[in-house]
Specification:
Elements: E1 2-6, E2 19-22, E3 32-40, H1 44-52, E4 61-62, E5 66-74, E6 86-90, E7 102-106, E8 110-112
Antiparallel strand pairs: 1-2, 1-4, 3-5, 3-7, 5-6, 6-8
Length: about 120
């Protein structure tokens, strides 16, 4: 899958500060749902994390915490969602973010579009 990530805390002007990369599509297990990301936002948390949280050596850090998308698959302990559900969420800072085609998210921090009358 396509993603935007970094390996070093570099100034944003540096061409290597954020890079287009390819990653494997993750597999949903446990309480995780695999979301096909349809829209993201960029907010101050992304700036702070990129500035202050280097990934482990030779690993990529994918930013992005606020997203919306469609559930593609679910882990074996998921009870709140099924494939095809439209969802929105603010992700987990300790996990790969939403600046990717797919993201694993714990179902317990996700909202359904169907549960929110605003959409």
């Amino acid at each position: 899958m396509k993603a935007i990530a970094y390996q070093q805390n570099l100034p944003i002007q540096d061409p290597l500060s954020l890079q287009d990369i390819q990653l494997d599509i993750p597999v949903a297990t446990g309480h995780d749902i695999l979301v096909e990301v349809k829209a993201i936002s960029v907010n101050p948390a992304d700036f702070k994390v990129r500035q202050m949280m280097p990934p482990p050596e030779r690993e990529w850090k994918v930013l992005g915490f606020d997203a919306t998308g469609i559930v593609k698959s679910v882990g074996d302990n998921v009870s709140l969602f099924k494939p095809g559900d439209k969802v929105w969420y603010a992700g987990d800072i300790s996990r790969a973010g939403s600046n990717a085609e797919y993201q694993l998210v714990d179902e317990r921090i996700v909202e359904s579009h169907a549960q929110n009358t605003v959409f």
